[in-house]
Specification:
Layout: H1 6-11, H2 13-20, H3 24-32, H4 36-47, H5 55-70, H6 72-83, H7 90-117, H8 127-135
Helix pairs in contact: 4-5, 5-8
């Protein structure tokens, strides 16, 4: 999510601090370990199949994985545009980056709040359905 928050950080620093601030230590820890993101991804991926964990926990981990995979596409488009030396106008880049940032951030906030309330966070369009199919009924 961090590559997409630069415009929000610039324009609305208090919003960005509220959304990114609580997880900043975890992000710093993951980034300090070589291949930290990959290690976390593999660990979550393998644990979603662990039947000893509750379905509730496995569902939330699978949603995190799917959101991480979904972020590959906007990052890929940005890197492809940079490699091809395309310079899209700032009026296109800023709303696209901000939309990705808020979509993922609000999905995470929703999932955390629902988990705290003891409910399964199964109302994120596409992501929840994919997570449900992936972990199965048990």
């Amino acid at each position: 999510v961090l590559p997409f928050c630069k415009f929000v950080l610039t324009d609305f620093p208090i919003v960005a601090v509220a959304l990114v601030g609580p997880v900043a230590p975890f992000i710093a820890l993951i980034n300090s370990v070589p291949f930290g993101g990959l290690i976390v991804f593999v660990a979550l991926s393998t644990q979603t199949r662990n039947a000893d964990l509750s379905r509730f926990v496995r569902f939330s981990m699978q949603q995190a994985i799917i959101l991480d995979i979904a972020l590959i596409f906007p990052q890929l488009f940005g890197q492809l545009g940079g490699a091809l030396k395309l310079n899209p106008p700032e009026t296109l880049i800023e709303p696209a980056s901000t939309t990705v940032f808020f979509a993922v951030s609000l999905s995470i906030v929703y999932a955390v709040v629902e988990n705290i309330r003891g409910n399964t966070p199964n109302s994120i369009p596409f992501v929840s359905e994919a997570a449900d199919r992936s972990i199965g009924p048990f």
